[in-house]
């Protein structure tokens, strides 16, 4: 499928470009052949048939991460290792995603669920896969062992932070830091925490993009949920929350996602990056998109009630 090849190559192209503009290829003395081999492996390990969790999502998150790392609060304090880790984690954070969620893997007795003892199953797998590819490609083999180990560990801590079930833990720590103005970005652990938050923001930033893009991501993620729901129905398993196409509409899923996950996180990110034109633009778009989905949900209700004609642009083309 040529189109998917182009889409997935965008991850390799984007990463090469970003590592180059930051001078990281030179800084870490990276071998271009090994780098391309590694990035090619990452790209190929994304499943191109997943509607959402494919290499294009990885490229999207990487692009967002780059923008967040450029925030004036951060940019000058980040070390080359911080930037390298941030971009690498973004590019690889969902690698080999099976297109179903953790509860599905647990209830179907998937080997990954037992391997990672039902905890951060997917995120652990994304991380360990990335480490495997780093080692296999030999990308960092010229660096001292302690530095390689440190990179692998930090990569794990970043990717594991994308586990949405740990959202409240991160959000309250972030809020606490902002309330007490206790973040000191001259300290490496504090910069690492902000990298975790930035990656979490990048991972859920779809509703902060312009409606036309935002809507397509929303439809894609719901399509992936519905596919899981269809498999669950087929095997007479209980249908997971948000995965029932008959009951969980795209607008209702999006309104819940925005209100409970995206909005609270970006409110704090906006506070942290203040003054940031980008954060303000994102908050504006977030509100506009939420309003749009509310309008669509309302239309859907009218349709269900039989009161409205089929005029909502809710259905996929
Ligand atoms: Zn993701």
TrEMBL record:
Zn(2+) 2 binds at residue 94. AMP binds at residues 53-57, 94, 203, 254. Zn(2+) 1 binds at residues 57, 93-94, 203. Its EC number is 3.1.4.53. Coiled coil: none annotated. InterPro entries: HD/PDEase_dom (IPR003607), PDEase (IPR023088), PDEase_catalytic_dom (IPR002073), PDEase_catalytic_dom_sf (IPR036971), PDEase_CS (IPR023174). It comes from the Eukaryota. Pfam families: PDEase_I. The keyword Hydrolase applies. GO terms for biological process: signal transduction. Keywords: cAMP, Hydrolase, Membrane, Metal-binding, Transmembrane, Transmembrane helix. This is 3',5'-cyclic-AMP phosphodiesterase. Pathway: Purine metabolism; 3',5'-cyclic AMP degradation; AMP from 3',5'-cyclic AMP: step 1/1. It catalyses: 3',5'-cyclic AMP + H2O = AMP + H(+). The chain crosses the membrane at residues 6-25. The active site is at 53 (proton donor). Belongs to the cyclic nucleotide phosphodiesterase family. PDE7 subfamily.
């Amino acid at each position: 499928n040529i189109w998917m090849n182009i889409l997935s190559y965008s991850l390799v192209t984007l990463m090469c470009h970003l590592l180059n503009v930051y001078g990281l290829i030179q800084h870490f003395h990276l071998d271009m052949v090994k780098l391309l081999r590694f990035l090619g492996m990452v790209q190929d390990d994304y499943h191109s048939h997943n509607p959402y969790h494919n290499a294009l999502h990885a490229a999207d998150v990487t692009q967002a991460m780059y923008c967040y790392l450029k925030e004036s609060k951060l940019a000058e304090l980040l070390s080359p290792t911080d930037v390298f880790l941030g971009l690498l984690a973004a590019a690889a954070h969902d690698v080999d995603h099976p297109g179903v969620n953790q509860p599905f893997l647990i209830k179907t007795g998937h080997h990954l669920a037992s391997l990672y003892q039902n905890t951060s199953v997917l995120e652990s797998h994304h991380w360990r896969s990335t480490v495997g590819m780093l080692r296999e490609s030999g990308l960092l083999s010229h660096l001292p062992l302690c530095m390689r180990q440190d990179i692998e560990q930090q990569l794990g801590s970043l990717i594991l932070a994308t586990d949405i079930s740990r959202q409240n833990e991160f959000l309250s720590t972030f809020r606490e830091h902002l309330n007490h103005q206790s973040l000191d970005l001259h300290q490496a652990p504090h910069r690492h925490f902000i990298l975790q938050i930035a990656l979490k923001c990048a991972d859920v930033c779809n509703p902060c993009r312009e409606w036309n893009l935002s809507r397509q991501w929303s439809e894609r993620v719901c399509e992936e949920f519905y596919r899981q729901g269809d498999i669950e129905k087929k095997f007479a398993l209980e249908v997971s929350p948000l995965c029932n196409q008959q009951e969980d509409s795209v607008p209702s899923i999006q309104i819940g996602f925005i209100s409970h996950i995206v909005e609270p996180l970006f409110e704090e990110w906006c506070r942290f990056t203040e003054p940031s034109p980008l954060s303000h633009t994102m908050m504006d778009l977030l509100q506009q998109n939420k309003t749009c989905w509310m309008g669509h949900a309302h239309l859907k209700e009218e349709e269900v009630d039989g009161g409205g004609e089929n005029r909502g642009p809710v259905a996929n083309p």
